[in-house]
Amino acid sequence: MTITPNRTYDFIIAGAGISGSFIANDLCQAGAKCLMLEAGKSFTRKTYPTSGLDGNSQLYWSGGLELGHDCKIAFLRPKVVGGGSIVNQALVDRFDDEAFDSWRSVSGVNDFNSEKMAPWYDKAESEIEIQEIPAQFRNKNAEIFDKGFKHLNLEHAPLRRAQSNCRLEEGNCCIECLNGCRVGSKQSMPETVLKTALKKGLTLVSEMEVVQIIRKNDRIQVQCTDSKGGQASYHSKNIVLAGGAVGNARMLLNSGFQKKLPHIGHGFFCHPQFMSFGVYDEVINSHLGAFQAFKADDKGFRKNGFKLENVYAGPEGIALLVPGFGKKYQQNMEKLPHFACIEVCTRDTQPGQIKVNRKGKVLIRKERNQEDMERQKKGQKIVEQIFKSTGAKQVIHGRFAIGLHLMGCCAMGTNSATSVIDPEFRLHGINNIFAADSSIFPNAPGINPSLTIMALSKKAAASILRSR
Amino acid sequence: MIVSKYFSQSQLKGLSKAGDVLLPGTKTSPSFSSTGCMSHMDRMAAYLSEDDLSGLQMLLSLFRWTPKWKISLLFKLCNKSDKIPSFFGAALRMLEIGVKGAVFSLYYANVTKPGYEGPKVHDAIGWHPKLVLRDGELPGKKAKMNYENPNQKNVDAIYDRAKSGHKDLRQWPVKKRLEFITNLKAVILENQEKILDHVQADTGKSRFDAITAEIFGVLDFLDYLEKNAVKYLSDRKVATPFALMGKKSKVFFEPLGVALLISPWNYPFYQAIVPICQAFIAGNAVVFKPSSATPLKGLVEDLLQQADFRSGWVQVVYGQGSSVGDALVDAGPDKIFLIGSQAVGRHVMAKAAQHLIPIELELGGKDPMVVFDDVNIDRAVAGAIWGAFTTTGQSCTSVERLFIHENIYDTFKQVLVKETLKLTQKTDIDGSADIGPMCTQNQVKVIAAQVADAKEKGATFITGGSWDGKSDHIPPMIIEGVTSDMLIDRQENFGPLLPIYSFSGEAQAIELANDPEYGLSASVWSKNLKRADRVARAIYTGNVSINNVMLTEGNHALPFGGVQKSGFGRFKGEFGFYAFTNIKSVLVDKDSKKMEANWFPYTAKKYRIFSDLTRALYSPGKISSLVKGAIHGLRLETYVAGLSKNNKKR
Ligand SMILES: Cc1cc2nc3c(=O)[nH]c(=O)nc-3n(C[C@H](O)[C@H](O)[C@H](O)COP(=O)(O)OP(=O)(O)OC[C@H]3O[C@@H](n4cnc5c(N)ncnc54)[C@H](O)[C@@H]3O)c2cc1C
Q1: How close A201 gets to chain B, by Cα (Å)?
Q2: Ligand 1 closest atom vs CA A245
Q3: What would the pLDDT profile of A223-247 be if each residue is shown by its tens digit?
């Protein structure tokens, strides 16, 4: 089936993730005619997958995991209307001076500055509800995190989550929301800005993957394939690339933009994360209730380029991380109720690269240098100390690194030889292709990216509207 | 046997083996294979990228033939992949993540095969998160289906399900569909006694009748499908003529959509499974309505489910033909296939006509058996008795009229009567009875009327004359002196009645055997095979057995169907595959600048060349016509090419 609607939109937004939804909302509120194209499916509270088996398959690219060329990091790349906001842990945090200063110095973009970004953060935060987990609902996994930090005299703070009403008093378990929040508490895009954008007339086409962007006489033509292999093309005056780091790189590389902008695909970062489990005599039941209530807030961590996260995962994920196989392995898994979990999230310094092969398939190249590995080791050492000091009998380090903060590949910068997006969120030298999502990160900030993506997207929308 | 759209049986065996190496089971945790979580493999596979899928397929194929200890060694090596540099390390990690990813996702997702009663994985690992949902958050419940006397809304739901079932089914290649047939065969074998009990409870037929026709016949048919379906349903190339040089011609055999199958009560299991599987294998979703007299309630769907058929593929709907059957027709299936009586056939066809639904009818017969004087009498008699009385005469191809050459008439009759009187009649449990009682009270009434009419008009009942006209144990009746004004001669009797007649020669035999109304099957008995062949050709009917009776049905490679008012269309055999297929013609040309000579613009010059070409091609003389044809063809092509160039310029 080839659908070729003749209508020309003001904007096509490629990708219905966090950035795409934020930008679409502001553009629609300003009266622009917008079309949003998303490769993933569209779900509602009633239809989110209820099993990890379907969650991995239906909410991520490539049926769950993607591997880089050396298969050392397993990448999780959301593919669903709402993007990362459907599956993420909803931890929201502003960047600190350290993050912006380093961005400014590599990019030459003066707007990367805590003070200048503050109003955009305010605006972003006004679109969603943000809460802390009340003390009485912290589960044992959170308590261990708390106790451990206190034992070791490390700074930590309550975590801010994008959530509205988890009804924890009814016994709800946050782990259930990792395949889409069925109680509608998580401030995912379909519950927030995407909803308002649709009310304002946004056209959303899901299961429609953008393959190529063609620029003809300042007009944009977008070639797509649907989930059944059919083709479609759409037309617009402008396009906002919001496919995330890997998604944007892929679209641009498949469209040949690297000839003019050789930096596309370079500068890929992912905050490699390492889950570790402490095994206790007592029952922890990390998966029950709110497992995630604290964040690390330690100056020393920041200096050493890592942070610790109070997280947990579904049994399929944990199973893949626990080493070994056979009877002994299964017996280990039977101790799952005794597991607590802390994750080391490293701020990676060695950039990777995204390429596409002849078929247009993504190839990820991402190595870690000595420094990056040091950061992991330092983090894991403290995790071990936390677990031991709180009575763990055994510590299990996960088999693989996980990459789920996928960033860069279309870095913002002032120099078109070393960056892709200009400070006004346009592709260098092209006035109708924009991006403000995780792909424009000039390096790894070492802080969870989603809130900053929202803020940048707000700023981008304003800039786009101003230039119209 | 688990069937997957994406993995072959041998790959699934590989997965099961690798899964058990990774998860062999403990005191509290089940082993990977025992949970049957593999039956959910497609939920995952459907979303894998092509490359990942083919990689996994390859690996699993490999595991199929690798001993467990070697697989175990491989995973041990994987544990050390960090110490193995570059490419090999990466390959091992990919293997580990790929296989563990598949195995653990299935196992730890806590999914199982239907009917699994062992320990649950989530209990073993203490995984019980809670989420209290309110109205508006609860997942939409699947509509509860009602298959018994469905009302209009239920019928709509049944067809909705069938349509989505068809959408899914048509994506399964024939070879994959056959895996379900293989499953079904095994399930039927396993459940043979249960099926026979069910059939006997509903029909009362003898156990031997039941096992031969309903079990053996069905398994043999499924076997035939396994061996032939791929061959007959694969795309075919056909010749492309000279005038269309450079193009290719193909035929696709595609499903029609939703097939409605309506079956009678005489062979309730055979007439269920055979048409269901014939329609299914071609990729149709099936709505099946068994006779309300012998519905075998719950049996067919249960067996299909055990064979892993998906819910929308085949649905069994119960109820009266007059109400439910009508509603099912009106709901607009893409094809109707009916086995039954003339009356029902006429009614359903009239309804189908309103919706222009293609229909195939297998109706009754009044089948003749013609015995010449050169036969082995004992064998021919035995054949006649079986042909007339098996399943108590309730087959559409039962012998209903026996013509015996006058030279052997008396001897033949004597043996026939003697042997018929030996038949035992009851619903047995050990297979020792020859025939059972009648299936339905209705049919008893029909026969009572025919018998009373014949008696009144002077027919002689050599056996069975003492029947009271009420008991469903109608004894086999051999009847002499039947004339054309008797009901028994004109109506299908569908019971153990055997009128016998004598004839004097071949021509008369043919004339008598040719019924004015019916034409389903016949049998011709003679040592002289040439004569038998002549007579077989001369009888206007759908099926003929020579020196045997009702045996065309014994070979599933032979098509089955009738002429005249015995119905039309063929099922089974090669032609049977086409009863449920859209035979699609495809002509493939290349995309090019070339214009076709027969397209516009028409010009006088083009007309002249074309007429030269026609004359050259189709005049006698093979070689000269080919050469001339080629010359004029070239002229035409050059001229057309010139035309389109000029056209562009204009
Ligand atoms: C499991 C998990 C947990 C996380 N936890 C946190 C957290 O707690 N806090 C935090 O700040 N961050 C977290 N993140 C990261 C955060 O969610 C992402 O950084 C963020 O979603 C990126 O936003 P984005 O708009 O750049 O892209 P995304 O939100 O990923 O959206 C991109 C969308 O574009 C679509 N797309 C891509 N290519 C195409 C194409 N060619 N055609 C059509 N559509 C396309 C994708 O399918 C996707 O839906 C987490 C991520 C994961 C996976």
Answers
A1: 24
A2: 26
A3: 999 988 899 999 999 999 999 999 9
CA angle A130, A132, A136 (to 5 degrees): 150
**Helix (H) / strand (E) containing B183:** helix B174-190
Rounded to 5°, the CA angle B62-B64-B67 comes to 95
pLDDT of residue A2: 44
Note the ipTM here: 0.95
Residue A88 Cα, ligand 1 centroid: separation in angstroms?
8
CATH 3.30.1490.100 fits B367-556, yes or no: no
Is B22 part of the contact surface with chain A (CB cutoff 8 Å)? yes
Task: Give burial (CB, 10 Å; 0-12/13-18/19+) of A323.
Answer: middle
Inspect the interface and report whether the beta carbons of B26 and A331 lie closer than 8 Å: yes
Spell out the domain ranges in chain B: 9-124, 152-362, 367-556, 604-649
Residue A147 sits at φ, ψ, to 5 deg, of -60, -45
Q: How many CA atoms lie within 13 A of A193 on its CB side?
A: 30
What chain A holds in terms of domains, given with CATH numbers, is 1-43+93-127+188-261+411-468 (3.50.50.60), 47-79+83-89+130-180+266-408 (3.30.560)
- Put simply, the answer to whether A361 touches B126 (Cβ < 8 Å) is no
If one counts every other C-beta atom within 10 angstroms of the C-beta of residue B174, the result is 18
pLDDT exceeds cutoff 50 at A1: no
Percent with pLDDT over 70 in chain B: 100
For residue B142, the chain A residues in CB contact (below 8 A) are none
Instruction: Name the minimum distance, in Å, from the CA of A358 to any CA of chain B.
Output: 13
pLDDT reported for residue B419: 97
**C-alpha–C-alpha distance, residues B262 and B281, integer Å:** 18
Contact B48 A62 (CB under 8 A): yes
Q: Exposure of B507 by Cβ count < 10 A (0-12 exposed, 13-18 middle, 19+ buried)?
A: exposed
Q: How far apart are CA A346 and CA A350, in angstroms?
A: 11
Based on the residue annotation, tell me whether B277 is a catalytic residue of this protein. Answer: no
CA distance A455 to A22: 9
Q: Does the fold of domain B367-556 match that of domain B152-362? A: no
Dihedral pair phi/psi, residue B604, rounded to 5°: -65, -40
User: Per residue in A3-30, is it b (16+ CB within 10 Å) or e — as a string?
Assistant: eeeeeebbbbbbbbbbbbbbbbbbbbbe
For the CA atoms of B22, B24, B30, B34, what is the dihedral angle to 10 degrees? Answer: 90
Facing residue for B90 by CB, picked from A70, A314, A319? A70
Distance CA A430, CA A421 (A): 10
Answer yes or no: are the C-beta atoms of A288 and B80 closer than 8 Å.
Answer: no
- Annotated active-site residue in B360, B362, B400, B492: B362
Q: What is the pLDDT of residues B222-279, one digit of tens each?
A: 999 999 999 999 999 999 988 888 899 999 999 999 999 999 999 999 999 999 999 9
Q: Is the CB of A84 under 6 A from ligand 1?
A: yes
3-state SS assignment for residue B355: helix
Ligand 1 site, residue A442, Cβ cutoff 6 A:
no
B258 with B159: CB under 8 angstroms? Answer: yes
Distance CA(B166)–CA(B158), nearest Å, equals 12
Neighbour tally for B282: CB within 10 Å: 27
Peptide bond into B601 cis (omega under 30): yes
B132 closest CB neighbour out of A63, A170, A330: A170
Q: Is B396 a known active-site residue? A: yes
- Residue A406 CA: nearest ligand 1 atom is 19
Mean pLDDT along residues B577-588: 97
The topology under which CATH files domain B152-362 is Aldehyde Dehydrogenase; Chain A, domain 1 (3.40.605)
8 A C-beta contact, residue A296 and residue A308 = yes
More confident of the two residues B154 and B242 = B154
Q: What's the DSSP call for residue A347?
A: -
Q: What's the mean pLDDT in B537-552?
A: 97
